[in-house]
Amino acid sequence: MSQKTRNIKLICSDIDGTLVPDGTSEINKEVFDVILALKEKGIIFAAASGRQYESIRNLFERIANDIIIISENGNLVMCRGEVMARTEILKEDVQDIKKRIDAIENCQLLLSGVKTTYIRRADRELYRLMKEGYHYDITLVDDFDEVDDTIIKMSLFQKDGRAEEVAGEEFMDYWSVHPRISAVCAGKEWIDLFDKDGNKGNAVEQIQKIMGIKVSETMVFGDNLNDIEMLHRAEYSYAVGNAREEVQREANYIADTNVNDGVLKELKKLLAELD
């Protein structure tokens, strides 16, 4: 890294597939120590994920009040329990998404509100995964028509890790030209759907505007397609070594893999330069 790295004021990292393996419920505790040490140097850390806010807060419990949390793929940005930015899906689009996902075999649907995630009572396996693996706050419903809540993200889940293949080109093409909704692969099992204004890149941009931070003062880490907009908001954009090829092409730098603590290694390098 060059001397310019000393101007870093904001670090944003994806979680699953980047900071940790997918679905991990614990983070290397050294990550917390380094984040706090960077905070002492005046550098803000933001955890950015497709996960629910409560899941991220639980994961970073020890330092949750010392970081910014970008949840639901950038559709909800929180700092110390206060909302910094938020989007929502119109009710008519919620119904359209539900109808189209329900028509796909071997897929399940999640609805994400601000404080809880809704899962059908019949989807017990999915419930266990989200509750035990991701530590989500879950509300079970017999039918999604029961839900009377602001929905900020909807997710297609395909347990065999073939979400894009099973959903098919027609499904993805429909949303690619939709005026309000974006659909993006968020992992082998996941396709997330949300308001077009609600992605990780726009969330980072909102933080930069609020905090008065430049692109040249930002460092970002990601691994999947839903991280690309975020990479574009940072001069120091890193794809981890296990990232998809499309993501590596969009990044300015390549870090080590998630299982080899690639993000932690880069943060420690930065910290060493600042000492």
Helix count equals 9
Strand content: 15-25%
Number of strands: 14
Number of domains: 2
CATH architecture of the largest domain: 3-Layer(aba) Sandwich
What is the helix/strand order? EHEHEEEHEEHEEHEEHEHEHEH
Measure the end-to-end span: 15 Å
Shape: globular
Oligomeric organization of the protein chains: single chain
Q: What is the CATH first-level class name of the largest domain?
A: Alpha Beta
CATH fold annotation of the largest domain: Rossmann fold
Overall mean pLDDT stands at 94
Q: What's the CATH superfamily of the largest domain, by name?
A: HAD superfamily/HAD-like
**Stretches where pLDDT falls below 50 for ≥5 residues?**
none
| Strand order in the sheet with the most strands | 5-4-3-2-1-12-13-14
What would you say about this model in short?
The chain is α/β, with parallel strands linked by helices.
Describe the structure.
It is a single chain. The protein is of the alpha/beta class and 275 residues long. It has 2 domains: 3-86 and 199-274, HAD superfamily/HAD-like (Rossmann fold), CATH 3.40.50; 91-195, Hypothetical Protein, Haloacid Dehalogenase-like Hydrolase, Chain: A, domain 2 (2-Layer Sandwich), CATH 3.30.1240.10. 33% of the residues lie in helices and 24% in strands. It has 9 helices and 14 strands. The chain has helices at residues 29-40, 53-59, 91-102, 124-133, 163-176, 200-211, 228-231, 245-250, 262-274, and strands at 10-14, 44-48, 68-71, 76-79, 82-86, 108-112, 117-120, 138-141, 153-157, 181-187, 190-195, 218-222, 236-239, 253-254. The strands form 2 sheets. The chain has an 8-stranded mixed β-sheet, with helices on both faces. Helix 7 links the parallel strand 12 (218-222) and strand 13. Helix 1 (29-40) runs parallel beside helix 9 (262-274). It is globular, with a radius of gyration of 18 Å. The mean pLDDT is 94.
